[in-house]
Specification:
Elements (H helix, E strand, L loop, with lengths): L1 H14 L5 H41 L4 H7 L2 H21 L4 H35 L9 H25 L3 H18 L1 H15 L10
Length: 215
């Protein structure tokens, strides 16, 4: 394919300089890495400045409110960040094919970056949904911010588990089993704090108390 042909062409160009086999492969990987970084920056710049600008102008002319909230909470911007990360994931095995250890490390970095980018994307989507519900009269007296906080906790908890799994190479189930053993100790130490946190969530979600109620 085109990627393999590009790698072979660059390898032949560097080989003409007269370096040893190791340094020829290493310099090829370094040059292609620099080219990849420049390409990723250019792609991210074009998506943010050109495509995002066009989409923002189209959305500003629409009559619906939800798309304006998506722009306000930078959902489209977080979405564009996924493209360079995905491109990097596809290019890394080719660039570092002479160094399997480098492939592993670089792949871990891009996988963690993808997890973080998706986490921020979902966070922005939930914020947009929160702002949309705030404009709805039926949710005017609901503790929407409390719901968002719980959703954010779940998002970053999942992102943390996936990041741990990527960096250690272990299954997320292994981490959850270890966490289950540690949680038994935490329940004993922070029992009152945890019960208070859970009670506050239940009060907020069930709308049990409102301003003006007698307690």
């Amino acid at each position: 394919n085109i990627q393999s042909e590009l790698y072979q062409w660059m390898l032949q160009m560097v080989d003409k300089v007269g370096f040893s086999s190791y340094w020829t492969i290493a310099l090829t990987s370094i040059i292609l890495s620099i080219a990849l970084l420049i390409t990723l920056y250019a792609v991210d710049f074009l998506l943010r400045k050109v495509l995002l600008l066009v989409l923002t102008n189209v959305i500003s002319k629409s009559k619906t409110k939800i798309d304006d909230l998506l722009v306000k909470n930078r959902v489209l911007q977080y979405l564009t960040h996924l493209v360079p990360v995905i491109i990097a994931q596809e290019a890394i095995p080719l660039i570092f094919q002479g160094f399997p250890n480098w492939i592993k490390i670089a792949s871990q970095i891009t996988d963690v970056a993808l997890v973080i980018a998706v986490g921020f994307l979902f966070n922005a989507i939930f914020k947009s949904f929160r702002d949309f519900l705030r404009g709805n009269k039926s949710f005017a007296d609901k503790p929407i911010d409390s719901y968002l906080q719980v959703a954010n906790i779940l998002i970053f908890f999942v992102c943390g588990i996936l990041t741990f799994s990527i960096l250690t190479g272990k299954s997320p189930i292994t981490f959850l089993v270890s966490l289950g053993a540690a949680s038994a100790v935490l329940m004993l130490v922070f029992k009152d704090s945890i019960l208070g946190f859970v009670a506050s969530i239940q009060v907020s979600m069930n709308d049990m108390v409102r301003v003006g109620d007698w307690i």
